[in-house]
Amino acid sequence: MKAQNIGLKILLMITFLCIQLTAFSQSLEQTFSQLLEEYKKSPKEYAQRSYSEDYRFLGWASGKIMGKSEMLAFLGTLKVAELSCSDLKFVESGNVGVVSGYLTAKYAANTYKDAFTYVYQKQKGKWVNISGQHTKVSYDEPSKIAADEMAIKKVISQSTDSLYAGKLSFYVQTLANQPYSSRTSVNAEGKLDYYAGEELAKLIEDYKKNIAKNPTTSTVIATRDNWLIRVNGSSAFVTFDQHNQNSNGTKRDSKEIRYLEKTNGEWKVVSVVALVKK
Description:
- This protein is α+β, with helices and mostly antiparallel strands and 278 residues long.
- The protein has two domains: 26-140, Nuclear Transport Factor 2, Chain: A (Roll); 143-276, Nuclear Transport Factor 2, Chain: A, CATH 3.10.450.50.
- The chain has helices spanning 2-25, 28-41, 43-50, 68-75, 142-164, 168-173, 198-213; strands spanning 51-59, 64-67, 80-93, 96-107, 110-123, 126-140, 182-186, 192-196, 221-232, 235-245, 251-263, 266-276.
- A hairpin with a 5-residue loop joins strand 7 and strand 8 (192-196).
- The longest helix has 24 residues, at 2-25.
- 12% of the residues are buried.
């Protein structure tokens, strides 16, 4: 009986050892699909388990380097809807493995495609991710674009409405105040006015002086429609129709163009074009 028990223990030990050796001998290529599934289930839990303590990530347009703690904070809010890879290439040397290719991930309504390179090191029989690098290929972010478009419409409306109301301090806050800022207008008679740089700054100062002398509130009500908005990163090109109506019944319609830039998370007007219809 004792011999049988000893034989059973030896058999169990050999079986366990074989399992461990099999796991240790698995290549990164054999393991990578499993790692992706773990990430898909919970990005934060995957990072907690599979990132080394000195993990470094380099990516996105800013080129910012992030460590493990920063990545855990970032990944904590993410829920993966879809995840896939393509054009994968694996290279292994000793206990180090590198995989590169394309990764497409969908989070809620937003889809991101990046080129990536991940470096792994085998530690205690487990592939540990020690660094990662992403380069943007294409991003489809309808939820972010919708939020940007709403903010752009708001600042354009506030900019013009505050100017009409004589609230110059608020009006100035909506402007980017760049060396290349400009204002162009063509009235119903075809007269062209163009201001840029120092001339534009002087125009705004003249506005302030005139309003200080004649602090009257404009009776113009402006409405806008037919918006076309193109957001490209931190810049935006916008066209729309504006309809001004005065309390005396006079009306003015114009085609409007704006160029905006996002600074410190806020959209600011850089260029204004107003073409008044005859």
